[in-house]
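Problem: given the chain below (73 residues), write out its structure.
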Amino acid sequence: MTLTPQRRFVTPEPDESVEQLAARALPGEPLEAAVDRIKGWNLHIFATRRPRGLLLGSDVVFVEPPRLEPVRP
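Solution.
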């Protein structure tokens, strides 16, 4: 069995904000762009959680987009 490629991810530090996580996980990006990317790749955190954007230590926060694989018939 061959393993499929996996997406890079991080877990939040205690009391870490989305902005702090974005700066840590994507240091080469402008902060606003990094936050937008994190939010776009992690709708499971940002679409339904209240308060919006609350990070939990158990969250898996993806720091790269999903890999698109060819559709197999």
